[in-house]
């Protein structure tokens, strides 16, 4: 009986709790307006090219305008060793839900679409491909966008 009572009496004091930092993260409310300014986006993965997956790497300047639109300000893309310089000048769109998840389409009809997660203070955005390239070919890419001061 003492063991049962000991555990039973201890259970209320061990109520599930969440550390303050985790509670603050859960209580965050995100919106499109929080993404504003210049970010450096870096992605890597694979694209389907001539029936084979080839490695890709992307470094892109991305300006979030705070209204659901973006501008690719500059970029370098490496697809299987073929390098494309100055891959900028494209306009795009993005969404951000209250839970800090969203979507990114940096160049509709050309680039793939992505799912995103906006980190605290919108200092970093995690990115993973969720749709095919503009020509319909599949790919697998992931990366981050980090705010540039």
Q: Which terms would index this structure?
A:
149 residues; mainly beta; 8-stranded antiparallel barrel; 9 strands; 11% helix; 50% strand; globular; disordered N terminus
Task: Describe this structure as you would to a colleague.
The protein has 149 residues and is mostly beta strands. Helices cover 11% and strands 50% of the residues. It is built from two helices and nine strands; from the N terminus they run ααβββββββββ. An eight-stranded antiparallel β-barrel has the order 1-2-3-5-6-7-8-9.
User: What series of H and E elements makes up the topology?
Assistant: HHEEEEEEEEE
Strand content: over 45%
Tally the helices.
Answer: 2
The largest pleated sheet is described as: 8 strands, antiparallel, barrel
Work out the number of β strands: 9
Computed Rg? 21 Å
Helix content: 10-25%
Order of strands in the sheet with the most strands? 1-2-3-5-6-7-8-9
Provide mean pLDDT, rounded: 85
Please give the alpha-carbon distance between the first and last residues: 63 Å
> SS-based structural class?
mainly beta
Unreliable sequence segments: 1-24
The global form is globular
